[in-house]
Amino acid sequence: MTSVTWFKLVTVAGLLVGQILCKRQYIEMTHEIHDRVVTYPGMPKFNFTNLERGDKRGFWVEYNKFQLSEHAGTHIDAPIHFNQHGRYLHEVPLDNLVGPGVIVDITHRAKRDRRAEVNVEDILRWEDTHGKIPKGSFVIMKSGWFRKYPDTTQIFGVDVNRFPSTDFRFPGISPAAAQWLIDHREINGVGGDTPSPDRGGGSHMRTHLIILGANKVILENVANLDKVPPSGATIYALPINLHRGSGGPLRIFATLNDGEDFDYSGSGRSLPLTGATLFCVLFVKLMY
Known about the structure:
Elements: H1 3-22, E1 25-28, E2 47-54, E3 61-67, E4 75-77, E5 98-105, H2 107-112, E6 117-118, H3 120-130, E7 137-142, H4 152-156, E8 172-173, H5 175-184, E9 187-192, H6 206-213, E10 217-220, E11 233-239, E12 247-256, E13 261-262, E14 271-272, H7 275-287
Parallel strand pairs: 5-7, 6-8, 7-9, 9-10
Antiparallel strand pairs: 1-12, 2-3, 4-10, 4-12, 5-11, 11-12, 13-14
Helix pairs in contact: 1-7, 5-6
């Protein structure tokens, strides 16, 4: 076999390996919007109306209209939601909607205490394992509540049609932890798999006030957190561009960083995150 043939075989094999190693993985983190979409009691119900469906024009046409609260299902809170001088949704910069994922897992504690909270010690333990929280991160609580969706009684811990909000029982992020993140780390926002970062039945929306008061965003009712690693993913939290919105429906997903470059340094330069990325670059350089 000639050296040229060997070269071709090695090249093809290397490209195949590179494709496997460098393939970006996507993780859906959004609950579907349907007639059981979770909202706080008192919010408007989801309404979906078909306007046309069929081929009576000689070709297929289908379109609909829907009505939905800004703060329903998987959604984003813009700063204006609890901050009179904060940004509206259309004013949130795009680079505030993409960043490293910091998944803080309190699932075991939340099984014992439905009103468990992420505290400063949880954040410090995360950093002991994974390093300092990167600039522009989303710090997201994983409590296991995403598995209860869309059962409102399971999510809120009570029959929402019979009990006041002071009786709600679901986990959250403590105001002390929220304040520590604002004071000590440059985050894009916080989130969680519950209807609010404020635990059910307490804190008088203090976590909301701290995070939104600092012009950061909040991501609520986040899905599939069992599929997102504690660190190393990039979060894309992409809402509709609603003018003067206080929030809105969110399509949030994560990429696992095979082939993903993200500027953690703040320098404006893309830094490769994985050995797979480096392998792909080196292979191409060696072959060509």
